[in-house]
Amino acid sequence: MRLSCLQENLNRGLSIAARAVATRSTLPITSNILLTAEQSRLTLAATNLEIAISCWVGAKVEEEGSITIPARLLTDFVGSLPTGKIDIALSKNVLELKCARTEARISGMVSEDFPPIPQIADGVATQIEPDILKQGISRVAFVCASDESRPVLTGVHAKFEGSKLVLAAADGFRLAVQELPILKPVDEEIEVIIPGRALMELNRLLLDQEEPVGISIGKNQILFRPKNAEMVSQLLQGEFPRYQQLIPDSYGTRAVASTTET
């Protein structure tokens, strides 16, 4: 592996991928970030076995290769460098980084031992505007239960139907439901339960997004594709409560409040 890229781009890519790094795991390599140099880009990937995040950084690649490096060590070092070009080379299992007058050598682990990043080739696919998705997540995901005695309540129920997506979350005391338009209608209705923590991470990935976000739903996983990144999450298994029965069809009293004043 031999390449060069800009410090600001690499630093941003590492901050994105690092969100999926395992903090407590019996598998030490999941505390690492996988670096793969190919063609004209550097791929950064991390997984905690529940979610996986990949992102791409533009680079001048002279020699392809891959290695896994401790995430915190690499992220802290790159973040401390001045803006400018970083030269990166791999010698055996040691990553060498040079930027201005600073040099470092970081030992890593072979990429073959890194858990494979899930791919969803088949399944339901659609797209949604990032601002709409961010709004939906913000209005629903906070209701998810933190108690894992009922795992399905720690997730958000997502129902894809025609040209709309309905998100719902409940914790036994509160219920939040939000209907969102999607850009590409789905041919078949599908219901899944997405972990609330995964959606909160996705919300952070969407901060600077302007282009539509691709969504692919597989049998046990869901894939989100913001620009220059991907996030795959395991789906929760189980039956989500039929919350529609809890929403009254009529009311005797109705109050309207201004959100700007409250």
Could you characterize the architecture of this molecule?
This protein is of the alpha+beta class and 262 residues long. Helices cover 16% and strands 40% of the residues. The chain is built from four helices and 17 strands. It has helices spanning 7-17, 71-79, 130-140, 196-205; strands at 2-6, 32-38, 41-47, 51-58, 60-63, 65-70, 85-91, 94-99, 102-107, 124-128, 155-161, 164-170, 175-181, 190-195, 213-217, 221-225, 229-234. The protein has an eight-stranded antiparallel beta sheet. A hairpin with a 2-residue loop joins β2 and β3 (41-47). The longest helix is centred in the first third of the chain and has 11 residues, at 7-17.
Q: What's the count of strands?
A: 17
Radius of gyration: 21 Å
Shape: elongated
Distance between the termini: 55 Å
Helix share bin = 10-25%
The largest sheet is:
8 strands, antiparallel
Instruction: Find the structural class using helix and strand composition.
Output: alpha+beta
| Binned strand content | 35-45%
Strand order, largest beta sheet: 6-2-3-4-17-16-15-10
Give, in order, the helices and strands.
EHEEEEEHEEEEHEEEEHEEE
SSE map:
Layout lengths: L1 E5 H11 L14 E7 L2 E7 L3 E8 L1 E4 L1 E6 H9 L5 E7 L2 E6 L2 E6 L16 E5 L1 H11 L14 E7 L2 E7 L4 E7 L8 E6 H10 L7 E5 L3 E5 L3 E6 L28
